[in-house]
Amino acid sequence: GMGAGQSGSDVSIVSSEPESPTRVERIEFWTEPLKNPVAAAAGGLHSFLAIRTQDRKTRILEKLVDGLIHEREVMRSELVYKRMKKAASLVKSAHKSSLRPNLKLRTIRRWAKRHRGDYDVHSANCHRMSTYVWNLSVAEHRKRMDVPQSGLSYFASSIGIGASTRIAQSRKEREKEADGDVEW
C-alpha cells in the first residue's frame, strides 16, 4: 500500500521554502591581522565574511586595499586550519534560523557592492563592509554588531601598552563566546 510513502510526503510540506543552491545557510564574521607587519603589530585587523550556501560551498567576501569587493570560494578546512593556528578569529556566526528568511547570495553581493570605492586603513573600510552586510543579513536586532574598533587611528591615539593588552583581552573573550556558537 501507500502507507510507507506517506511520511516522505509530509517532509516536503514542512520545507515549504523554495530550495536554492545559493540560499545562505550561515554567515560568519572573521578577523585576521593586517598583512602589513607594522599595522599588524599595532593590532590592526582585516575582516571578512565567510558565507556558506545551500550547495555546501563556502565563499569569502571581503573588501581589499584596492577598494574592490572580492569573493572567492574556499575549503571549509582552510578556515578551520587558520583558526587553529590562531591566524584568524571567528568573531560571530549566524545560522539560517537567525538570518533573514530565504536570504540569497546575490542579495549579499548587492549589499557588498555599495561599499566599493576607496580604501582607507584608518577607517578600516573592510570592517564597514563586513559589518554592514552582517547587520542586513541577520534578522534579529540583538545579533547586530558595531563596526569593530580596529582601525589604526584608534590605536595611534592610544599607543600606551595598556590599551593594546586590553584589546587583546576583550578579543579573547569574544572568541570564547564565538566558540560556543560554532558548529563545524
Helix content: 25-40%
Average pLDDT confidence is: 77
Kindly report how far apart the N and C termini lie.
41 Å
Which regions are unreliable across 5 or more consecutive residues at pLDDT < 50? Answer: 5-14, 154-169, 179-184
Give me the side-by-side strand order of the main sheet: 4-3-2-1-5
Taking all Cα atoms into account, the compactness measure Rg is 19 Å
- How large a portion of the residues is in β-strands, by DSSP E? 15-25%
Instruction: Indicate the multimeric state.
Output: single chain
How many H/I helical runs? 7
The biggest sheet amounts to:
5 strands, antiparallel
Query: Number of DSSP strands?
Result: 5
Shape: globular
The string of secondary-structure elements, in order, is HEHEEEHEHHHH
Structural class: alpha+beta
Q: Which features does this protein show?
A:
single chain, 184 residues, 7 helices, globular, alpha+beta
Give a brief description.
By secondary structure, the protein is an alpha+beta fold. The chain has helices at 3-14, 37-41, 76-84, 105-113, 125-137, 152-156, 161-179, and strands at residues 24-33, 45-53, 58-63, 69-74, 89-95.
Overview of this structure, please?
There is one protein chain. The chain has helices at 3-14, 37-41, 76-84, 105-113, 125-137, 152-156, 161-179, and strands at residues 24-33, 45-53, 58-63, 69-74, 89-95. The chain has 184 residues and is of the alpha+beta class. A five-stranded antiparallel β-sheet has the order 4-3-2-1-5. The longest helix has 19 residues, at 161-179.
